Amino acid sequence: MSQPDTMFASRSVPRHLVRGALGLPLMVAAFALVPWLGPLALLLVIPAAVLLRGCPTCWALGLAQTCALSPPASAAESRPRR
Questions:
Q1: For 57-77, how does the pLDDT look when each residue is reduced to its tens digit (9 = 90+)?
Q2: Among 1, 5, 2, residue whose Cα is nearest residue 68
Q3: DSSP 66
Q4: Residue 2: per-residue pLDDT
Q5: Sign (positive/negative) of CA torsion 10, 66, 27, 45?
Q6: CB atoms within 10 A of CB 72
């Protein structure tokens, strides 16, 4: 059996979510700031693309891969402590 494609997956779901929380606002800011900063604002796309490992769709695909590869939480871990 072959290994699943994990090109966009991260080591953990929280790490992947942090990358998205940093990359997505940078991507939006790159295009929102064009009227004020001109083409210079588009330089924000570079760190955003690095954080997202491509486009927002690539990030979402990586999130799905990361969730599929991460071990499921056991019932004991999901219960609140008393």
A1: 999 999 999 999 888 876 556
A2: 5
A3: H
A4: 66
A5: positive
A6: 8
Which of these, 70, 73, 71, lies nearest to 10 by C-alpha position?
Answer: 70
Q: In 9-39, which positions are buried (b, 16+ CB within 10 angstroms) versus exposed (e)?
A: bbeeeeebeebbeebeebbeebeeeeeeeee
Q: In whole angstroms, give the CA distance from residue 42 to residue 25.
A: 13
pLDDT at 77: 61
Enumerate residue ranges in the chain where pLDDT < 70.
Answer: 1-2, 74-82
Two tokens at 56? Answer: 């927002």
Task: Supply the pLDDT for residue 70.
Answer: 85
- For residue 42 the two structure tokens come to 């588009």
The residue type of 45 is V
**What's the full length of the chain, in residues?**
82
